[in-house]
Design goal:
Structural class: mainly beta
CATH class of the domain at 84-239: Mainly Beta
Helix content: 10-25%
Oligomer: single chain
CATH topology of the domain at 84-239: Jelly Rolls
Distance between the termini: 32 Å
Number of strands: 11
Radius of gyration: 18 Å
Largest sheet: 11 strands, mixed
Bound molecules: fe (ii) ion
Number of helices: 3
Length: 249
Amino acid sequence: MERRSFVGLAPAGVLGVISPEAGEEAPVFSGPRQFTDYDEWLNESRRALLAYLKAEGPANTERFMQFLAAWVTGMPKTPSPKWGSIPGANRSLDFAMLSSGRPFVVTTFRMAPGCRQPAHCHPGGGGVTLCVEGGLVMRHFNLLPDQPPFSETGAKVEIEETAIARLTRDTFTLFTPTRSNLHQLEAGPEGAVCVDIVVQWQGAGQFSYLKLRSEDAGAPPRPGQRLRGEWVGMDIAKAYPEGATHPSS
Ligand SMILES: [Fe+2]
């Protein structure tokens, strides 16, 4: 398997080597090796991340997600999932849990060609989304300051598009609790299968979809643009613009 690569959202210094001061010994960055056994990867990555948390604490979510992303580069093929379907999406959308536990869970989802997961948030959470089959466009957004929280269903909010990740096989992107915590995913003509490696700092994983205004739902991806919509809760069917929802097949 080819080494995975990171798409979009690259913050300064991600996985980088810190330039040493004159006379200082150059630090050596040693990433994880490429694993061939999923359980071995799971055990070793969890051990490394728990050791990181013990040494550094949980406060710096950005750094933790970067460290997690480094481990995702060494993840082998995941086990075959037992798919369950998510009703209400515009095209067939399936989901499965691969590994529960801490400090991260591993899930997977499968999108039929043209399937869209409308914009939604992951309050208190962060995640790495790795494409393992097909391709998709993942648009990242920030909630603008002083907006009503996701729990206020029906409240209107404004978001800003921060980055666009066009994922194909073996590429990934990430979000954190404070950066690009909202995203929208749309599968390309081949459909897409992705693996999510998800961390929850606060909350129990509750979230809300955001139904964009119809004029904003059709806006092409563009970093920096602002879009408006309203929180509609956890039912994906309520997040599509009127007339765009099709029964799951
Ligand atoms: Fe998501």
